[in-house]
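Exercise 7.
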Amino acid sequence: MSGRALRTLLLRTALGIAGLFLVGYLVQSVGAGRVWEVLLQAGPWLPVVLALEVVQVVADVGSLRAILGAHFKSVPAVTWVRSSATAYAMMILVPAGRAAGEVTRAALLSTHIGAARAATASTQLQAAYLSANGLLSLVEMALVALFLGFGNALALLLGGNVIFQAIVSTALLAILWDARVGRWLERMRKRFAPRASDHPPLDPAFRRSIPWRAFLVSSASRGVQLVQYGIILYAVGGMPIPHGAVIAHGIHLVGATLGDLLPNQLGVVDGTYRALAGDLGFADAPARALSIALVARIAQLTLAAACVVVASVMRPADSRAPASSASAGAGARS
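Solution. The predicted structure, written as tokens, is:
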């Protein structure tokens, strides 16, 4: 292991430990016994929460299908399953998980669609996802301001999240538009697929396209997540009213952005729910507010564990084919 890799590993481990300690402190501060009671109360709803999490994973594949168009069919189903499982596990288990997961997904897809196309599609998916987060943050900011007042802290934080998501998503698309990026992608294509017949040069129009359809799919996925957090709020004892779901999800969006450098945003999302418990009507019951983050995390870690198993037992699609036939098939592709 290189010195840089070792430092990265140590930093990630330290961040994970720090997040765990922060979660432990928050649980103790509101009463571990009370948190346990709320989690038991929410338990029957966990399968529903987990199912909605799976829907969001499938939506990412739908977004990539919208981006790749006809090239989507070049990837075997087993690779889609394996790459999606690996990407989700990394999103949940490592710092800056979304970016790390998409890089890994692109690496697994590159065998079938080329490194340049996979990297471009991954970047466009990131931009679509961030744009959808920004749009939902904007809508929720307006609703929270309407419900709780324009000077409300959550409304202001959501406004900041809108600006942040817009800047990052625009920057990603602007990077793809840069001609130097196109030349770098072409060099990467030649390096990883030296036979031109394997993966043809990347069309600049694809690199410079705006992923509108992927944005719509990602926005629908964020809508599913909004419903998911409304259910979690009800499961921990909150009122089943629309504006409660908006507030609960708005807190998640803010906490997820603030805690992006920590694995699964450990401690930061939890602390955000604890700090804004009053907005949820839980000023006198902070254990319920904190439990929203814990229920969501239980569902995510359960699915991530299943994804690790799936990614481990599924072999890459190309590894099952004889070398001669794989080479012949590659040469036949245009």
